[in-house]
Amino acid sequence: MKDRCIVLVAVVAGVMLLTSVASARPSATKQRVAITAKGTSHLSSSGRWVLEPLGAGPLELDSGTGTSVIARQRSVVRDGQSAQIVIWVSTSEGKRGSFVTRARIEHLDVEGYNVGTGTWQVVRGTGAYAGITGGGRVANVTPMGRPWVERDEGILIVP
Fold it and tell me: Checking DSSP bridges between strand 81-94 and strand 62-78, what pairing results, if any?
């Protein structure tokens, strides 16, 4: 009987220790954000961006400059409509740090406008963006002869 009590106390103590160690780990925070950008577009793009928190969390309003380059591009025809699938890699440098994103966007030409939609994800970051992951959806438009505008919305996971 005494041995059973000792084993029971040891098991309870072990469970309590494991629970306290597990809860001591910092938990990640999910935060909804929007990144709005404008700039010039060619085979590489440059412009200005603003990151706006759309929900509570550790990330704050930030802005800065960025550059984007085409990592890969191909043409497809779907249901008779031509589209360009472009993989963009963008580096954004702001007041609170920098981050790199990768976006896959399908672009369509529509009467003097280039319209694109797709997805984006964070590759890496520094400063306030160190260790973040996540991504979301992207939409952009480039009127011929004018700067492009883009809006990325999604969820970032901050460690």
Answer: antiparallel
Q: Which residues contact 19 (CB under 8 A, 6 or more apart)?
A: none
Task: Say how far apart CA 100 and CA 123 lie, in whole Å.
Answer: 5
What the block records as the tokens of 106 is 């399908």
Contact 107, 115 (CB under 8 A): yes
Structure tokens at 154: 């999604």
- State the residue for tokens 């966007």: 105
pTM: 0.80
Q: CB within 8 A of 58, min separation 6: which ones?
A: 29, 31, 128, 158
Question: 34 near 155, Cβ under 8 Å?
Answer: no
Q: How far is the C-alpha of 123 from the C-alpha of 134, rounded, in Å?
A: 9
Tens-digit pLDDT profile for residues 45-104: 889 999 999 999 999 999 999 999 999 999 999 999 999 999 999 999 999 999 999 999
Q: What is the percent of the chain where pLDDT is above 70?
A: 81
CB atoms within 10 A of CB 1: 5
